[in-house]
Amino acid sequence: LSERTEQFTDSVIRRMTRVANQYGAINLSQGFPDFDPPDELKAALKKVAEGSVHQYAVTWGAQNFRQALAEKQARFMGIPIDPETQIVVTCGSTEAMMAAMMTVCNPQDKVIVFSPFYENYAADAILSGAEPIYVPLKPPHFHFDANELEAAFAQHPKALILCNPSNPTGKVFSPDELRLIAGLAEKYDSFVIADEVYEHIIYEPYRHTYFAALPGMFERTISCSSLSKTYSITGWRLGYLIAPAYIIERAKKVHDFLTVGAASPLQEAAVTALRFENGYYKQLQKIYEEKRSLFLEGLKRLNLPFTVPQGAYYVMVDVSEFGCTDDLRFCEWLAREVGVAAVPGSAFFREDIRHLIRFHFAKKNETLEAALNRLESIR
Ligand code: GLN
């Protein structure tokens, strides 16, 4: 078998879901909602099922989907987006990130990855032949050191991967941090591959800054995102890349040969969501604000130290007081004996850090309350 696949370990995030199922634990590991998408969207899907959109769409995305997406993203990003030349619709942001890497990287090219990072980036690097340079985001505040970042850029990476708002830390990169990254990307002529799937899940007073919208950055940014988190439809697998035409022209081919296209009936139904008014996004923020408060208040009552997430729906909890030196075993114990599943932090860190675990709170309030009740037994 290929040397490439030999380097893979299986995804710890997905493994923890299997562990949760095995022990009947409440699954706060793999991040996805246990609540339904808006009724209007479900109704749209039902209508599509009865209609006649059941064959391939245009490989880079159905025209009406791209049109609606371009309008919605232009509204939020504050820059014009051409649905014909600047968008590729993919099978989730997972494919978008992979296609972005394959579009810009040659084997042995370097890519900067902040650590901790979302597991897939290491696999994306292996599959595209690139070599990651890790720059630490140091707990508990997850700041990076500007000199360390510049030292990484000095190795002339092809790209930097930026997950903002960040999984697993909940960090929202500040405008100053983003300007610093932009300056270095310009100075060392690197691309920025921005994973912005949590663009609409952000907590007051923080604001999301689209990297592509920073002065001069559109030309070197590949923005990857998806509908999964914004409309609670992780199973629909609808994602996309937005980039300048000269990049998209290549990305269209990578995507075509990888998957031909995202499911056409689902694209058709999702147009309904892309046309939601601003009120929908305000409501989404309110729902997550409430979930965050509920869960963080519970962690405080349990006296568990954590880093307050500024965006996304994850929280990193410090479990060192339990004598935890092996977070994987701790999470297995937690799922088996306490009945709550979390992801061991080491799944995200390049450095040897084993005292953090990640919970997600994209769950019904009653699910979060039940998980907190179970967690009381560890005290
Ligand atoms: N993004 C989610 C997480 O980090 C789910 C990832 C996945 O399994 N596709 O948990």
TrEMBL record:
Domain (Aminotransferase class I/classII large) ranges: 26-375
UniProt keyword Lipid metabolism, yes or no: no
Top-rank taxon: Bacteria
InterPro entries the record matches: Aminotransferase_I/II_large, Kynurenine-oxoglutarate_AT, NHTrfase_class1_PyrdxlP-BS, PyrdxlP-dep_Trfase, PyrdxlP-dep_Trfase_major, PyrdxlP-dep_Trfase_small
UniProt keyword Transferase present: yes
Entry-linked PROSITE patterns: AA_TRANSFER_CLASS_1 (PS00105)
SUPFAM superfamilies associated with the record: PLP-dependent transferases
EC number of the protein: 2.6.1.-
Cofactor: pyridoxal 5'-phosphate
Molecular function GO terms recorded: kynurenine-oxoglutarate transaminase activity; pyridoxal phosphate binding
GO cellular component: cytoplasm
Gene3D superfamilies: Aspartate Aminotransferase, domain 1 (3.90.1150.10), Type I PLP-dependent aspartate aminotransferase-like (Major domain) (3.40.640.10)
Broadest EC class assigned to this enzyme: transferase
Pfam families: Aminotran_1_2 (PF00155)
This protein's UniProt keywords: Aminotransferase, Pyridoxal phosphate, Transferase
Family, per entry: Belongs to the class-I pyridoxal-phosphate-dependent aminotransferase family.
Entry protein name: Aminotransferase
